[in-house]
Amino acid sequence: MAGNQLDNQGRGEASWNWPSIHPEGRKFGLIAVAIALFFLLILDWEIIGWPLLGVAAWVFAFFRDPERVVPQDDRYIVAPADGLVSLISKVAPPPEMQMADSAGNPGLPGEPVVRISIFMSVFDVHINRAPISGTVERVIYMPGKFVNADLDKASEENERQHIVIARGDGLKLGFTQIAGLVARRIVPFVKPGDMIAVGQRVGLIRFGSRVDVYLPAGTDPRVVLGQRTVAGETVLGEVGQQKLIEGIAL
């Protein structure tokens, strides 16, 4: 993954920049602007046009794609999404992740592991990133409902997309993009066979959603319930490390 190399010794260059808008969202923003200008300039309905212009600005902001500084350590599993850690539970990975694929590659083990659910509101960045480096082993789209993504049953009932990444050392990790009440479209940027780096952009979910991450066996979270994560930066866990971490909401 090309980028500006920075470290904790002060090397690299850092400056504030306006986040870019992902190409996937530019058409939606331009459509919103065109509608707002139609009401403002053609119909002269300012009471509708100005609010619509505000909506257009929000649409552009929704598809913002800021740069992230990704930890470069194979022990770390980084957050694939911005948002709120809404659920931490121990469950078996979805059946679609467990079964062997068409190439004969075995899936994830069937025993329960820690699942971290990150809820993305409509105000969060919705570009999702790879939690680890490796090869994309499978991308499985599952149609479904659009219940509140904050509910536990959303992982089994909603429109969703499973992604499994396999590392050269045999470690496999699965995560699921889940559509929510407003979201109606999961857009992948990767396909099976792609080699990806940790923190690389792998897809997005339009307009509110959730991402579930299934940590490898023997790995506990390094985040707590109610914590906010930053995609590509927040460390969710350290492979093979188990430790109780507590926090206090103030």
Structural notes for this entry:
It is found in: Cell membrane. Its cofactor is pyruvate. Its EC number is 4.1.1.65. InterPro entries: PS_Dcarbxylase, PSD-A. The chain has 250 residues and is α+β, with helices and mostly antiparallel strands. It has 2 domains: 46 residues; 163 residues, Glucose Permease (Domain IIA). Helix content is 18%, strand content 29%. It has 4 helices and 15 strands. Strands 11-7-8-9-13-5-4-14 form an 8-stranded antiparallel β-sheet. Helix 1 packs antiparallel against helix 2. The model has no long low-confidence stretch (mean pLDDT 89).
Offer a concise description of the structure.
The chain has 250 residues and is an alpha+beta fold. The chain has helices at 23-42, 46-62, 95-98, 154-157, and strands spanning 20-21, 64-65, 76-78, 83-91, 113-120, 127-129, 134-142, 160-166, 172-179, 186-188, 195-196, 201-205, 209-214, 228-229, 235-238.
Topology:
Blueprint: E1 20-21, H1 23-42, H2 46-62, E2 64-65, E3 76-78, E4 83-91, H3 95-98, E5 113-120, E6 127-129, E7 134-142, H4 154-157, E8 160-166, E9 172-179, E10 186-188, E11 195-196, E12 201-205, E13 209-214, E14 228-229, E15 235-238
Antiparallel strand pairs: 1-2, 3-15, 4-5, 4-14, 5-13, 6-12, 7-8, 7-11, 8-9, 9-13, 10-12
Helix pairs in contact: 1-2
